[in-house]
Amino acid sequence: MGRIIAIANQKGGVGKTTTTINLSACLAEKGKKILTIDIDPQGNTSSGLGVKKDELQYTVYDLIIGNCNIADCLIKNIYEGLSLLPSNVNLAGAEIELIGVEEREFILKKEIDKIRDEYDFIIIDCPPSLNTLTINAMTTADTILVPIQCEYYALEGLSQLIHTINLVRQRLNPTLEIEGVVFTMFDARTNLSLQVVENVKENLKQNIYKTIIPRNVRLAEAPSHGLPINLYDPKSAGAEGYRDLADEVIEKR
Ligand code: ADP
Ligand code: MG
């Protein structure tokens, strides 16, 4: 059975979307069957994978409010081995529409359970908040992967995230685990990046990936071409980083 990994951190700009796109693509490159799920209304994972998000007939939003079946909104094999459940700004309305809906924390899980056997990994990009959509990702997931940006306030908000994960484990998803923490945007030229890594290692009990994703301008450029890094610039430091992370994620099985 496939492993479902939610990429979560309620801080914006820490590399959730970049990690979702490129971990998904690098796992697919290694021959794994991947489903990527975009549950952020910003839809950056969808556009970063080359999907024209505003021209879609159905998205995760329609799936969540019961407007379509999973087959209607699934985009199969965008790249070899990588399929996508896309999102766009419509999803911003879901939070309100779900008020009072029974079992609203499990809507995504019920849909994904129908198809999870078809994939080796399912990677979910979460929005930058701890809202109903993120909770849906956490009830669907087996594990949570937390990207941490190598900057001064790296640990800010992390205890709140871990508290939320613990609550979800107690009340909604007893087998939920923290997959691990991955450092992103590491700048080898600054002492700050090194200090942040040391500080987090000292203060965090969670599993920390050996792979550290470097700050690499090619990673920032790739989404505007609608390509994951392994296709946009296969030899870049960013591509190497996400390939190494994919190896570690596979090894952990
Ligand atoms: P989040 O989804 O957590 O908000 P993003 O993945 O969108 O974060 O990243 C925020 C910004 O930083 C984006 O413009 C992205 O292109 C850029 N970025 C992310 N990771 C890197 C990296 N390793 N090197 C350079 N730029 C990066
Ligand atoms: Mg994002």
Automatic annotation (TrEMBL):
Recorded superkingdom: Bacteria
Pfam families cross-referenced by the UniProt entry: AAA_31
Gene3D superfamilies linked: P-loop containing nucleotide triphosphate hydrolases
SUPFAM superfamilies assigned to the protein according to its UniProt record, in alphabetical order: P-loop containing nucleoside triphosphate hydrolases
Signal peptide: none
Positions of the AAA domain: 3-178
UniProt xrefs under InterPro entries: AAA_dom, DNA_Partitioning_ATPase, P-loop_NTPase
Reaction(s) this enzyme catalyzes, per UniProt: ATP + H2O = ADP + phosphate + H(+)
Family: Belongs to the ParA family.
Complexes and interactors: Dimerizes in the presence of ATP but not ADP; ATP-binding is required for double-stranded (ds)DNA-binding. Interacts with DnaA.
Name of protein: Sporulation initiation inhibitor protein Soj
Source species: Anaerocolumna xylanovorans DSM 12503
